[in-house]
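Progress against Task 2.4 (sequence-to-structure conversion) is shown through the following example record, which the project officer requested during the mid-term review.
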Amino acid sequence: MKKYTWRKLFNDVHLWLGIASGLVLFVVCLTGTIYTFKDEVEKLMDPGKYSVEVPANAQPLAPNVLIAQLEQELKGSVVSLNIPEDKASTYSVGIAPAKGPEGGKGEGSSKGKGGEQGKGGGGGRPATYYVNPYTGQVVGTPESATAEFFTTVMKMHRWLLIEGDVGKIIVGASTIIFTFLVLTGLVLWFPVKRKNWKQGLKIKTNAKWKRVNHDLHNTLGFYSSILLLIMALTGLCWSFEWYRDGLSSVMGAEVFKGRKEKPMTIAAAASTATPEDYIQQANLLLPYNGDLRLSLPADDTTAVVIQKSKTGFFALAASDKVQLNKHSAEPLKVEKFSDKPLNEQIVGLIKPLHLGNVYGTFSKILYFIACLVATSLPITGTLIWINKLRKKKKPGKVVHTAAHATLVN
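Structure tokens generated for the chain above:
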């Protein structure tokens, strides 16, 4: 009887966990692969909403002029304005419906982002519009067939289209299993004989298909293991509150803290500052080129918030934030991402670390490839298991002796 070794244990754990979660992991990894280049696909499918022709020697409308024009046309209040660094891109504008009589629906109520109906009195989510910055013309909204497709992909990725907590728990449990699969796979990647370790770094393409399939599972899984672990460990933050709280305690910084943060409170006063003043002040405090997001409060006792982030192929998906006095544009607080402690930086990058845009297009490409590999692993792993079963069931050769031949005759 063969001795049951640690390697055999890891192999059995890897095998049976993989079989138990293979179908769910295939769906989750496939949808993750599709979602990686969501923004790029949406721009490709509907370029008129995201880009404009830049008139010769023309400058974008001043923010004050643009905001006044949109508020008059759309019968609402501008609460956010996204100004991209790219001069050929449209602006994204958030419009809160104007208050109607007795807090009822305003005239400008329209479908907001995600298809929700905007309600007067600030009761609904602000509607989002894409605007030509040179003319002020509204060229589109986020709603489209492509956006709806990616919304379905996201729902399938996060909870398998199963409403309630059931789907989220299934995905979360499968993600935990996936973490163990990656770790046990790394252990199994190391050969029994250390001198043969180089074999795990390449795919023997001229071998039989069973060997090629084994190498695809073994080698590609090894190369993508680090990114797959990052995806799994960050993805669990959306599945389980206990995990999110535990990670916050370990890191010494709250995960998704930005969702709860509110702008600073200021004293009410007569306003003399304009949106253009806010932007100029932010550019003085953050003197580099990048995308700007201006958040305008509806009341007189809340600070203006401006976020600025760098763009480019290797750009880090992190933003600096400035809070200004709404009435005077005086700086109240400046938060630079580079000045934060390392633990806060890591926690602040949970979402881009999961989505793959942590280092712009460069990291998206790497994540896309790793997601493709992850999608293939349940398939190649199942084929390896089936091949081993067939090998065990294969009958041994029958030795015909002279005595046996006599009995048969």
